[in-house]
Specification:
The strands form 2 sheets. This protein has an 8-stranded mixed beta sheet with strand order 3-2-1-4-5-6-9-10, with helices on both faces. Strands 7-8 form a two-stranded antiparallel ribbon. The N and C termini lie far apart (35 Å). The relative contact order is 0.15. The protein is 40% helix and 18% strand. The protein is built from 9 helices and 10 strands. The chain is an alpha/beta fold and 213 residues long. Helix 1 links the parallel strand 1 (2-6) and strand 2. The protein has helices at residues 10-21, 36-44, 53-59, 72-79, 101-104, 114-121, 136-140, 158-171, 184-202, and strands at residues 2-6, 25-29, 49-51, 62-65, 87-90, 126-129, 143-144, 147-148, 150-155, 174-177. It binds NADP nicotinamide-adenine-dinucleotide phosphate (NAP). NADP nicotinamide-adenine-dinucleotide phosphate is lined by residues 7-12, 30-32, 53, 66-69, 71, 74-75, 91-93, 95, 132, 135-136.
């Protein structure tokens, strides 16, 4: 599958490497294609390429939004019509990235969510919220004590959700259908719980798994 990744930092870079290694065609959308870290990333992600935000959006059958929350408006504007009809995975956690992240907490919630606000900005895209509930070290290796970490996802387009479930499985997660896009209101606080626990002593090498009776 052709995957465009908007933002090649911890999350975008990790996902791109993992999907490229699983055989997908990845294009990173970045601000600076001459960046030294980007060259290392391209070398580590087989057959991947990089371009501007609009190039990566146009390239992907599936596009991943992995920039800081305060950069999403500008990034989606640059992606423009390249997102029309596309599956857009929103990985953002609506927080202020910095030392006061925990004190400020979620910047959006209860009656709306980053997922819904993203979808409202790009109404022709098929938005699925996923990959915001664990840190990037778990995305790099979702197996915990031999069991796949659970990855809830939500959205309103059944076809888009099914494609995203497959991509989550390719990463090594156990995908969990968490309902309509309005349930991003539940997934984003769940991501904040992971962040809180990580900051308060659990570190970044833990994940939630699903067990049923
Ligand atoms: N870190 C985690 O473990 C984690 C887990 C789940 C979800 N998330 C969410 O995933 C998103 C990305 O997090 P991250 O940890 O990958 O952040 P990061 O390492 O800081 O990377 C952010 C990426 O976005 C790019 N970027 C920043 N501002 C931009 C703008 N105005 N236009 C275009 N690109 C821009 C950066 O480019 P430059 O290199 O040019 O600055 C960089 O490639 C955030 O919304 C975060 O809440 C993070």
């Amino acid at each position: 599958m052709k995957i465009g990744i908007l933002g090649a930092g911890n999350v975008g870079g990790t996902l791109g490497k993992r999907w490229a290694k699983a055989g997908h065609d990845v294009k990173f959308g970045v601000r600076d294609t001459a960046d030294a870290k980007l060259k290392e990333l391209l070398a580590a992600a087989p057959k991947s390429s990089a371009g501007g935000i609009a190039d990566a959006a146009k390239f992907g059958e599936v596009v991943v939004l992995s920039v800081p929350w305060d950069a999403t408006g500008e990034t989606l504007r640059q992606a423009g019509a390249g997102l029309d009809g596309k599956i857009l995975i929103d990985c953002t956690e609506p927080v202020s990235m910095g030392p006061d992240l925990l004190e400020k907490g979620l910047l959006v919630g209860h009656t709306t969510s980053a997922g819904e606000q993203t979808a409202a900005r790009v109404p022709k895209a098929r938005v699925v919220k996923a990959l915001s509930t664990v840190g990037w070290p778990i995305m790099a290796d979702p197996k915990v004590e031999g069991q796949a970490a659970v990855m809830p996802y939500c959205g309103d387009d059944a076809g888009a959700k099914s494609a995203v479930a497959g991509l989550l499985r390719d990463l090594g997660f156990e995908p969990l259908d968490a309902g309509p896009l309005t349930n991003a209101r539940l997934l984003e606080p769940f991501g904040m719980l992971w962040i809180y626990l990580a900051f308060k002593g659990l570190g970044t090498d833990f994940a939630f798994t699903l067990r049923k009776r």
